[in-house]
Amino acid sequence: MKYISTRGNAPAKTFTEILLGGLAPDGGLYLPESYPQVTRDELDGWRELSYADLAYEVLSKFATDIPADDLKAILRKTYTPEVYGNARSDSDTTQIAPLRVLEPGLCLLELSNGPTLAFKDMAMQLLGNLFEYALAKQHAELNILGATSGDTGSAAEYAMRGKRGIRVFMLSPDGKMSAFQRAQMYSLDDPNIHNIAVRGVFDDAQDLVKAVSNDLDFKARHRIGTVNSINWARVSAQIVYYFKAYLAATATSAQEVAFAVPSGNFGNICAGHIARMMGLPIGQLILATNENDVLDEFFRTGVYRPRGTKETYHTSSPSMDISKASNFERFMFDLVGRDGAKLRDFWSRVDAGGSIDIKGSAYWQALPEFRFASGSSTHADRLRTIRDTWTKYGVMIDTHTADGLKVGLEQRREDLPLICLETALPAKFEEAIREALDRAPERPPALEGIENLPQRVEVMDCNLGALKQYIATHTAG
Ligand SMILES: *Cc1c(COP(=O)(O)O)cnc(C)c1O
What we know:
Number of strands: 15
Shape: globular
Structural class: alpha/beta
Bound molecules: pyridoxal-5'-phosphate
């Protein structure tokens, strides 16, 4: 299996060749040159598999240059109840990503039972083990540099902590995260994890990361890499749980289902799109946004118009507060019939601050084939959905999952079972839960009192020289 760039101007590569990288050299994103197909019989043969072994069946079609035994061992080490077991007392702790039935035909897929209580662990934990494996083979080291406003940074740190050959330098805006989020990251005492609090806002931290990445000489000398949401291995790891959910929700592979996906950077739902392209019987992919509705707008109107930072709202589902969706280009590539020149044209407009309009074109005609539906949600919708779900089913959901469930219920086709992806646990968003339910969410025992642990963080001015100096000092030797 080879991977090609959405912009059509980069050499094809293998899975391990793109594993540690980000963008393709032509500025595009990598995708398989064609999607492997899964037949109904093959699918039915997977019904009894554990999550790890199902992941092997799916991912061995993509990671064709990793020896089968190695891949199987990595997946078994990643997807175990030791990592995913104890986040929630009312959960089926014998399973990875259990399906919780709210009522017949309406389910939640529990993806947030990992160490940082968000679905990003599902992909990031695998990335940590794949990186360690690949680096050991190459006798190489990698220094991961990133900026976070909360979720991604902590998922990356928990996935990379203690890993041989890997260091993490994670920038966060000083004083801008919740006490719980700070404690989650800054209380890690692994020597390979470096937390840097930048005196500024998230965008300042992000700009510093971009500036370091643009210094190609420094980047090469210090073996700097990233783990952002465009990484192909992260997307591919997410394809697996669509299969898992489908098999848990159906009795035969003649049935179709609908998925509702709380969306930001379009990574999660892109994996659903790919699962459908592989032949998984998905009748509807329902994309949910919060007030930051750039993606909902596209699916309703055919116009993709990335917002400026001033037009990006801070909401109570903060992990979906995005101005542009970094994985959306992958879907567009398929929508335009994999025409790299067309995407170069589209993204030259986007990169210049403009927009894309496909209304009235053949692409707009083709869109229904891809089975998307979409909608958006507000703070009041989230509170109401959290309250309704608690009253009706006795199940507490977080604000992001509430966005997904609200839009899913609105947009679903009545003839399809609806599976809503649970992208975080309520414990992460205590304030909103108190507002909705007037009570505190349950916190996993391992995270009780985490705010009182000693913290390790380097506070730094927003200064490129100082950051480079810090990295150079801590990667020497
Ligand atoms: C990252 C995140 C999302 C958005 O996922 P994308 O893959 O960026 O679309 C939704 N909910 C939560 C809790 C997240 O952390």
